[in-house]
Amino acid sequence: MNYFKSFLFIGVSILFISACSKDEDVSIGSQSNSINKILPLGASRVEGARPQYESYRYELWKDLTENNWTFDFIGTQSDNASYPSLANEDFDIDHEGRGGWTSGQILDGLNGWLSETGSPDIVLLSSPGGNDALEGLPYEDAVENINSIIDVLQAENPYVTIIIEQMAPGRTDVMTPELSSYFTQMQQEVLNIATNQSTSTSQVLAVDMFTGFNDSMLADDIHYNQSGAEFIATRYYNELENILAE
Q: CA-CA distance, 152 to 107, in Å (whole number)?
C-alpha cells in the first residue's frame, strides 16, 4: 500500500475510533424481563454521535413502537443525546455499540456484557469487521472473531436469533481498492456465516445493507446521517417483523 493509501486508512480509522467513544456512559440496571429483548451490537454505527452522525437505533425504535411491538433494547451502554419522544414514550437508549472497536475487542468484552444484560432474544450484529478493515487487520482474523462472537451468543442462549449485516460501504472517495475488496469479500462471507452458524434452534440471518446504499446517506466518511439511519433501520425492521414474538 502506498503512502497516500496508508494515510487514508489511518485517517479514516481515527475518525471511526474518535468520533464517538463513550465507554464512560454505562447504564447498568436490572436485567430485562421483556419479550423480544434486542441487543444492538457493534461499533460507532450502533453507538451514534448525535448531532454529528446518527445510529439506526432511534429510527428502528420508532418503527417498532409505531407498529405496537413489545420489545426492549438492552446493553451496558447508553448515550446522552436528545431524542424526541413518541406516543408519550421515551427512546430506549440501551445498546452495545462502542466507537472504534474491532471484532476482537467486541469478542473479548462480550461475555462480561452479557453477564450484566442477561440473554438477548435477538442480536443485531452491525458492520462486522468494519473497524478491522479500517485498521488494516487480517481478514481471516475478523472472520474467526465474528464466528466466535456468534458462538458466544448461542452458548448464552441456544434459541437466540442473530441478524448479521452485509455492511454498507463508506463514502465513495474513501473506498480504496483494498477497502472495497475487503467490504465485498466480507459481504459475501456473511452469507456463509449465516448458513454455517444457523442451528435447529438459533437462526443466523444475513441482511443486505449495501444494495441501494449511497453517499447521500452518510454524514461523513463512514457514519450515517438521518437518511442512512432510516435506510438501515428499515432493513432491520423488515427482518424483525417476521421473527418477533407476539
A: 8
Q: What is the pLDDT of residues 44-73, one digit of tens each?
A: 999 999 999 999 999 999 999 999 999 999
Contact of 1 with 177, CB cutoff 8 Å: no
Helix, strand, or coil (residue 47): helix
User: Burial, 27: exposed, middle or buried (Cβ in 10 Å; 0-12, 13-18, 19+)?
Assistant: middle
Measured CA to CA, the distance from residue 180 to residue 176 in angstroms comes to 6
Who's near 210: CB < 8 A, 6+ residues apart?
166, 167, 168, 169, 183, 187
For 70-100, what is each residue's pLDDT tens digit?
999 999 999 889 999 998 999 999 999 999 9
Phi, psi of 160 (to 5 degrees): -65, 145
Residue 51: Cβ within 10 Å count: 9
State the fold for domain 3-240.
Rossmann fold (3.40.50)
